[in-house]
Amino acid sequence: xxxxxxxxxxxxxxxxxxxxxxxxxxxxxxxxxxxxxxxxxxxxxxxxxxxxxxxxxxxxxxxxxxxxxxxxxxxxxxxxxxxxxxxxxxxxxxxxxxxxxxxxxxxxxxxxxxxxxxxxxxxxxxxxxxxxxxxxxxxxxxxxxxxxxxxxxxxxxxxxxxxxxxxxxxxxxxxxxxxxxxxxxxxxxxxxxxxxxxxxxxxxxxxxxxxxxxxxxxxxxxxxxxxxxxxxxxxxxxxxxxxxxxxxxxxxxxxxxxxxxxxxxxxxxxxxxxxxxxxxxxxxxxxxxxxxxxxxxxxxxxxxxxxxxxxxxxxxxxxxxxxxxxxxxxxxxxxxxxxxxxxxxxxxxxxxxxxxxxxxxxxxxxxxxxxxxxxxxxxxxxx
Length: 383
Ligand code: PLP
What we know:
The chain is of the alpha/beta class. It has helices at about 5-10, 50-65, 75-85, 100-110, 130-135, 155-165, 180, 185, 215-230, 235-245, 245-265, 285-290, 305-315, 345-350, 365-380, and strands at about 70-75, 95, 120, 140-145, 170-175, 190-195, 210-215, 275, 300, 320, 330-335, 355-360. It contains 15 helices and 12 strands.
């Protein structure tokens, strides 16, 4: 039975009801008995990503991203690196969005050339430069649905049509949007990746990743993952399976809080600028409206300088100064001290990332408490 509703799928897809259990049990067994007549290819072993814990999650994730097949991995980075290494031969060239998640960007820039891959960074917002960046070896276009920390959304249809015209595989990291806000496979992307550590799990208690796409592509990636060994532990599978059930409720509540907070922050005298796709002043408001089913729960805002930004973070009582995102609790970070610390300050400013920028992963707390907390912290910051 195929259900259309997102939460119905989140709750019921990939639930084999083993011995009638409504909650998928944890199969804490590294090895499974090989039965009569089974071949080497039927061996079940945790590293081969084919225990009942993995199978159930794969079915759930595929259902949420409207994909044929899915594969969970030990982290978001394991999903990204294994996927790209599986779909490219040495010598291949990647067109990668500028301003990707720092780990992805560092891997593409520092590690890929050593492995025989070339990478060119392009702005996803300026398609006029994409063609010039192509080489005869270009194979992959890699981007993120919503960028970090300025929350930009590219014209995703244009990305896909460019890839079709030039024979590239469009691959997208959908972590910030989550499948609640966007299903890139429906737009023509070939593969969708997630750091499942974030919204998919939502409770800040595991690290996990996943990739979703056609059966043939996922088989190709699974083969590499089995050899690289980036498998997800069954207990983490259990927590992710449980976390996903409330994904839509969480993302909707968090996104609503973020929209209210963004509008409210825009009125504060200490705040110079607010970045959230719900704001009509945001550069990607129209693209977000067109390609997303909501504006997301990440926002950023600018205070006068790094001193003001640090003071604000220090004075929060509810919001926690911590990296990562997507959990039920509100977290704040300073991109110049974390994700973009290694970027040259002049280049950082050119990218629009000022020293006083505060990034917020908005949680599910009551909005009145969040406003009180932000107001108290802001009141200590000079306007
Ligand atoms: N992709 C994005 C957009 C991220 O923000 C992160 C981590 O912050 C990752 C991938 C990497 O995920 P993980 O930490 O699960 O390896």
